[in-house]
Amino acid sequence: MEPRLDALRERLATRPTATLRERRGLPPWELRYTLEAANSAEAVRLRPRIAELLGTEDFELRPLFEGAPEPDLARFQLLAFPWLDRRTFRRADLFEIGYALSDALGLVSAEPDLGERHFLETEPPLPPGAGPQPEGLSDLAFWCWVDSAPPPDPRWVLAAMRVPEAWTLAPGRGAGVLIAQPDTGIASHAELQDTTLRLDLAADLVDGGPGATDPLLASAGNPGHGTGTASVLISGSEGEAWGTAPGASLV
Fold it and tell me: Where do the domains of the chain lie?
């Protein structure tokens, strides 16, 4: 089983070090294991043992049932490797890694979190860094979530950035400028006008071919992101939000 752990150690050592922080939700592609220790006392001692076993502290370990009234449930722990894509491993290898973790740490079990469809999926694994990947916004999600009510003026950011003053220097508000935006694509939205979208120049860099329609799939990592950022760029005065360059064209 040790070679499977070597593969995990190698992947952890070669990827950029992640800054561990609280985040909302569990990305569907993130590498995670549910660990079951013999008892809650053993579970408490797992962190330093895992760090020694893998040669890194770049992981998250927390109770699977946080706040559960039954003390015995503390023996279940969630081991996560933030922003390490489980799809770069073969599914059989994910189970082998779990068996190796269980043997090395003396656990009852270590089960990979593969989602509800994993028994139906037969596609080969993605090599590290190849194929469609979730957006890097996952690394920034902690900073993007806001719990407070939105400002009453939806155009407050234009004033904060002094965009109206810039428009006095460039009355065309971006007229004649072509903006190329690599993102998740575009979905139909009232804030975006077809006259400012250069769909004739669009390209799908994930599946290949022309077009830039966002399928709005949760599995894509960040559905709708391209539509939101496009609005920030080119939304006109007819809608709720104003873009910084409503006169420009967007690819």
Answer: 2-135, 146-250
